Amino acid sequence: GAREFITSNNIITATTVSRSTLGADRESINSIRFNAPRVFSTQERAVTVEDYKALVLKEFPTIETVSVVGGEKLNPPRFGKVVVIPKPFNSKIASSSLKNSIVEFLKNRVSISTEVITSDPKFLILDINSLVRFNSTQTTKSLEDIKSNVLSSILNYGSNNLSEFDKDFRYSKLLFDIDNTDTSIISNNTKVRMAKELSPSIRTSLDYVLDYNNAIVEGSVRSSLFLTIINGVNFETYLEDNNGKIMLVSESRGSKEILDYAAGDIDYDTGILRLNSFRVDSYLKRGRIAFGDRIQIYAQNVDSDILVERDQIILIQSLNTNVLVTGQLTDD
User: Dihedrals φ, ψ of 95, to 5°?
Assistant: First the structure.
């Protein structure tokens, strides 16, 4: 957009110090066709879930997607409450001021007996490794070009099909998009697993509950690396599962050592993982196995498709997407 404005007589100049952020692009015709009837039908009153969504999205253009959950569906139930879960553009979590504004806006549009509260989305990250074979005689593109294009296809699949509430992951559709990246691609062998992120304050012990919402393959849980200090000794550690228990493991001294046999537990059927008094003494940074400011805990889903609950959003991000491409001279 324009940053400088000058009057016709060149006397006054106004300069924009910083561009506006977090807003949405101009609403598309298809978006207007979809949203206008829903906004009109609310008559500025919030009764149904769709009423809440339409009113919030109309009033707050910085919100990319929103979910609304009745309190009776929470665990434990909170009758008489409605939970609004907003996700802004270019941010995972809404600010406190935005949440407060949403509550104030809806206060006079709901029944007297209804209390509006807000919550944050829960994110489920897809950790993707894709091995792609292509026929180098059928294209002028280099191996790096194919790799870059496949990566773009995977990220675009996430942007177009996920990244919002109520969007499940369909494995076959991702494979289709990868294969159709280029006519020279012969096949792809793509493995997908789930990941949850934690960013604990260092040297602080807390309990955590992570909900993958999908059945998990026994023995598939493993975390990225982090530092644990025990009796003044530094250990590079990670979490893994064994028979429903989460253990703290280290290989710093050349062989595998179990430092804590009861760091938590996991229900493989429900996908609920609990950590007990979990503590990080320092973060490590080492490529895709340690990230410097967070820990990722991976788990292999039993089913190829991954489903979400009302407060969950599935993300595909470049940090967790690895593409390996091999070229060959025939389609065999």
Answer: -70, 160
Contact indicator for 113, 102 with CB cutoff of 8 Å: no
Considering only CA atoms, give the Rg of the chain. Answer: 24
What is the reported pTM?
Answer: 0.83
Give the count of beta carbons closer than 10 Å to the beta carbon of residue 324.
12
- Please give the structure tokens belonging to residue 146: 């194919």
SS percent in the chain: helix, strand, coil, step 5: 20, 40, 40
List, in sequence order, every beta strand (DSSP E) within the chain: 4-6, 13-15, 63-70, 81-88, 115-118, 122-135, 185-198, 206-211, 222-223, 226-230, 233-242, 245-250, 257-267, 272-278, 282-283, 295-299, 312-315, 321-328
Strand 272-278 to 257-267 pairing: antiparallel
Query: Half-sphere exposure (CA, 13 Å, Cβ side) for 121?
Result: 25
Q: What is the pLDDT along the chain (332 residues), one digit of tens a residue?
A: 555 555 556 555 566 665 555 555 555 555 555 445 544 444 467 888 999 999 999 999 999 999 999 888 876 787 889 999 999 998 999 999 999 999 999 998 998 888 999 999 999 999 999 999 999 999 999 999 999 999 999 999 999 999 999 999 999 999 999 999 999 999 999 999 999 999 999 999 999 999 999 999 999 999 999 999 999 999 999 999 999 999 999 999 999 999 999 999 999 999 999 999 999 999 999 888 888 899 999 999 999 999 999 899 999 999 999 999 999 888 87
Residues 278, 92, 127: CA angle, nearest 5 degrees: 65
Could you tell me if 301 and 194 are in contact, meaning their C-beta atoms sit under 8 angstroms apart?
Answer: yes
Angle formed by the axes of helices 171-179 and 143-161, to 10°?
Answer: 140
DSSP readout, 74-91? SSS--TTEEEEEEEETT-
Q: Taking a C-beta distance cutoff of 8 angstroms, is the pair 247, 258 a contact? A: yes
In this structure, which long-range contacts are made by residues 20-23, counting pairs with CB atoms below 8 Å and at least 24 apart in sequence? Answer: 21/90, 22/62, 22/88, 22/89, 22/90, 22/91, 23/61, 23/62, 23/89
